[in-house]
Amino acid sequence: MTYKVFMENPYLKEMDSKIIKNEFKDNKSYIQLDKTIFYPHLAGGQPMDFGTINGVEILEVYEDGEEIIHVVKGELKTSRVHLAIDWDRRLDLMQQHTGQHLLSSSFDRLFNAETIGFHMGDEYLTIDVKKPYLTEDEASQIEYLANKVVQSNFRVKSYFVEHNQLSKLPLRKDTSIEDDNIRIVEIDNVDYSACCGTHVSTTGEIGLVKIRKWEKYKGNIRVEFICGTRALKDYAWKNTYIKEIGKLLSSKDTDVLDKVEHLYNGKETLEKENKYLREQIYNIKAELFLKESKEENGVNYIIKEFKDIDMKEINLISSNLSRSQVNLIQVYSISTNELGQFLICKSKDLEIDLKEIFENVSNRIIIKGGGNQQMIQGASSIAILGNVINTFKTEIKKHFKG
Questions:
Q1: What are the Cα distances from residue 345, in Å, to 312, 316, 348, 361, 387?
Q2: How many domains does the chain have?
Q3: Would you say the C-alpha torsion 227, 229, 233, 235 has a positive or negative sign?
Q4: Which side of the chain, N or C, has fewer Cβ within a 10 Å radius?
């Protein structure tokens, strides 16, 4: 069985160890050691440590029964190795994990809300709390209590107990572990939890516990939070953003929210006014198009060519005209530097199937698009756009001649 040194001393950064078993396959060495400082991946929900074995970067660390397997690239031909962990990552994981115990304890103490789920990611952590809702005021209370414990710098200790001794401890959450030796992580008379993870030795080393946000999740609350250096980095970039936004708005950082809300409300008003003005412009353009229409065999035709105009604008104008007019066919073409587009529609009273017309034309000319009886639209190369429009006009006019 691999001796887990990290359980006893999570602050040990380097050590020598003896290889018990070494299997080489797929250009990787799968190594079992007599003792290790490397924490295995997702043991108790905690991610693995990074680091090196004999200077070679470790790829994976995982549990295999009571053994811990270390995976490195290439073949290690030696019986003894030197282990070195990435200390910044180890300290970060210790801060996050201990901070999670503290935050869960605060939820439990203040609102009798049990933590029923836990995930530790590379950017943030989440806990799922058995609570139907969480208010801003409640979150502030929980955060305040957790950070008061951090500032009080209580001891964090770990020890093993027999299973029959568990009933004597005020565990925050019952454990399903049936082993004779169960590891307890205690925040000095504040929190007792069965846990195999790595933790700081005093709460002051957590630095800060910060709740970022929360949401409802399966009838409970999922809380996203960060601790320690992660919280410091989070504050740093947010502080920079607030300062820069304040400069843009010529506002103090404490007034930024009010200024942004004012701008947002103003933006909505402008958008409504802009929409109204656009509609007026479209109506004017529609009237001008109608004045330029030409009648043939009892049908009025609007045939227009455009360059670099938004197809959405043509869609709006043509849709309004199709609803408000009778005996009307509209044929529009738009040419840009790269593409030719067309849109053809009819008023509802006309007995013609534009989709059928489209299929007839597409069998003779290479075009893309589609539509329905009322409207068709699509695209072609610019070189043949004129031929496409003429073919559509010929087919439509042929229908009404008949």
A1: 14, 12, 9, 15, 18
A2: 4
A3: positive
A4: C
In 3D, which of 10, 206, 176, 231 has the Cα closest to residue 101? Answer: 206
- Whole-angstrom distance, CA of residue 263 vs CA of residue 113: 40
Q: How far is CA 6 from the centre of its chain?
A: 33
Per the CB < 8 A criterion, the answer to whether 103 and 142 are in contact is yes
Looking at the predicted structure, is the pLDDT value of residue 148 above 80? yes
CA distances from 91 to 8, 44, 256 (A): 15, 17, 35
* Amino acid at site 245: I
Q: What is the CATH classification number for the domain harbouring 212?
A: 3.30.980.10
Model confidence pLDDT, tens digit, residues 217-246 = 999 999 999 999 999 999 999 999 999 999
The pLDDT tens digits of the residues spanning 346-369 come to 999 999 999 999 999 999 999 999
Tell me if residue 199 falls in helix, strand or coil: coil
Going by their DSSP bridges, the two strands 14-25 and 51-53 should be labelled as unpaired
Q: Who contacts 40 (Cβ-Cβ below 8 Å, separation ≥6)?
A: 48, 61, 62, 63, 68
pTM for the full predicted model? 0.75
Task: Verify that 371 and 318 share a domain, yes or no.
Answer: yes
Cα separation of 138 and 324, whole Å?
57
